[in-house]
Amino acid sequence: MTRLRLLGLSAAAALALASTCAHAQAPDLHRLHDALNLGASQEEAWNAFQAANLPDPEQAARQRSAAEMMPDLHAPQRVDLSIAAMRADLETLERRGAALKTFYAALTPAQKLTFDQQTLPRER
Questions:
Q1: Contact in structure between 15 and 86 (CB atoms under 8 Å)
Q2: Full-model pTM
Q3: Per-residue pLDDT tens for 9-24?
Q4: How far is CA 67 from each of CA 11, 46, 82, 83, 84, rounded to the nearest angstrom?
């Protein structure tokens, strides 16, 4: 297998993996909410955190479109498309990370411990 073909396949696999990893290990938000015993003053921060973690239909559509385009593209185009997709995924992760940090700052030390335990990545 040529290096460019291998790179193209790796890029396509990375594109598919990036779209599923964030959701595969996401905590059950309802269970997390219940475990945290949030006070009324924390609910607004929770709502912003939860909204930031909703699936983005536009991102899903972009990922499907990119996956469909891959077979028709030349290797340099596949790499460029993969880089663009990964940048979009990074922007989503940064937005979600900012919401997480804002919410986390509103938690008590005991709630932070619960949040940390409840959101640990699980083995598949």
A1: yes
A2: 0.71
A3: 444 444 444 443 444 4
A4: 10, 34, 9, 13, 13
